[in-house]
Automatic annotation (TrEMBL):
Keyword check for Flavoprotein: yes
Source organism, top-level taxon: Bacteria
This protein's UniProt keywords: Flavoprotein, FMN, Oxidoreductase
UniProt domain FMN hydroxy acid dehydrogenase: residue ranges: 28-405
Gene3D superfamilies associated with the record: Aldolase class I
Keyword Phosphoprotein recorded: no
Organism whose genome encodes this protein: Pseudonocardia ailaonensis
Descriptive protein name: Alpha-hydroxy acid oxidase
Length: 406
């Protein structure tokens, strides 16, 4: 039997206090996000379908992206207990300088399409938290404008080689003059990948106001208002931007890129050089022998070759091949701080995230990017504490493994 009674008013009062009202709509929206997946859900509601799919999608059947994310889900940690984890050091030396966190922001094209604050917002958040930011050749803000937006930040520049090498050399010289310390050459894009979502959505650059986009825009008036009341949306380094992304790539990028071009770039760039898009151990050895300071194991977020190798699975054999002769970075499918921890335990120097901060940008502009960093930082910290590690630099292969498929 339960002895029941009526509650006293004094007992109810603490339970009936309303939650404080947050006047700022962006803050109110972002408060509900506890994961990158939550930011993705908000981004999906707030942006036109073509814009969301451009960010979210991959090539062909999207197997490369699915497999990459599946690999991170196969990570199994080996925790140790009875250790003092009250404080955790998240810092990491990346390409010759200390980063406050063990990850950096990857290059993403056409960033102002996701949110009109664009690359300057992302770069300024990176500078504020003390991590590197990589500006894409396909960005919508110039090299100089990003440097001005984040003058105290550590800025990197990602380069696609044009058919016209003089244009590429000019970009490299501008990056050097603006204080960028690392150049990242992307080598996995001889031609554009078949991104079906973009084809189905009729995505063009800049977005065209067709009947389809008009109807979709009616459900996302804030996005269209921002687009139409800010500077025209164009690639900052391209004179001609008409057509789809794949058409631009095929028209402008050089499919004849070879190791000679890596040698040439090493000769004209005095800073750190990273080769992005490495997908096998033999190529790693070739570019390191040519003078690369780092390799980025990447299948371009699954946006180029479908059924490509899984970057997470390449970390250990790559590290075994090159040892300390260059740094191994990794990207693709990283959506949780535990993925970052796993990458470093497996042997990577650092991880790069792209979609994660883009979801934040779409969900809440600069504040959304900062929220993405906050979420990832909390997850990295908590994962380290739960496996009994007090510093990122102390992560070792014994702390994590990839479980077999099946």
């Amino acid at each position: 039997m339960v002895d029941r009674r009526l509650p006293r008013i004094s007992e109810l009062r603490p339970l009936l206090q309303p939650a404080p009202f947050v006047r700022d709509g962006v803050e109110r929206r972002l408060r509900r996000a506890a994961s990158i997946a939550d930011l993705r859900a908000i981004a999906r509601r707030r942006t036109p379908r073509a814009v969301f799919d451009y960010t979210d999608g991959a090539a062909d059947g999207e197997l490369s992206l699915s497999r990459a994310r599946g690999a991170w889900s196969r990570v199994e940690f080996s925790p140790t207990v009875l250790r003092d984890v009250s404080t955790v050091d998240l810092g990491r030396d990346i390409l010759g300088a200390r980063s406050a966190l063990p990850f950096a922001f990857a290059p993403t094209g056409f960033t102002r399409m996701m949110g009109t604050e664009g690359e300057p917002a992302v770069a300024s958040v990176a500078a504020e938290v003390g991590i590197p930011y990589t500006l894409s050749t396909m960005g919508t803000t110039t090299i100089e404008e990003v440097a001005a937006a984040a003058p105290t930040g550590r800025n990197w520049f990602q380069l696609y080689l044009w058919r016209d090498r003089s244009f590429a050399k000019d970009l490299v010289q501008r990056a050097q003059a603006a204080g960028y310390d690392t150049l990242m050459l992307t080598v996995d894009t001889p031609v554009g990948g078949n991104r079906r979502r973009d084809v189905h959505n009729g995505l063009s650059i800049p977005p065209a106001l067709t009947l389809r986009t008009f109807l979709d825009g009616a459900r996302h008036p804030n996005w269209w208002f921002d687009l139409l009341t800010t500077a025209p949306l164009t690639f900052a380094t391209l004179e001609s931007t008409e057509g789809t992304v794949a058409e631009l790539i095929n028209r402008v990028f050089d499919p004849a890129l070879t190791m000679d071009d890596v040698d040439w770039l090493r000769g004209v760039w005095p800073g750190k050089l990273v080769i992005k898009g490495i997908q096998n151990v033999a190529d790693t050895r070739r570019v390191v022998d040519a003078g690369a300071d780092g390799v980025l194991l990447s299948n371009h977020g699954g946006r180029q070759l479908d059924r490509a190798p899984v970057p997470a699975e390449l970390i250990e054999p790559t590290v075994q091949e090159i040892g300390d002769s260059a740094e191994v970075l990794v990207d693709t499918g990283i959506m949780h701080g535990a993925d970052v921890v796993a990458a470093i335990a497996l042997g990577a120097r650092a991880a790069l995230v792209g979609r994660a901060y883009l979801y934040g940008l779409m969900a809440g502009g600069r504040a959304g990017v900062a929220k993405a960093v906050e979420i990832l930082t909390g997850e990295v910290t908590r994962t380290l504490q739960l496996i009994g590690v007090t510093a990122v630099d102390d992560l070792r292969p014994e702390h994590a493994r990839l479980r077999p498929n099946g």
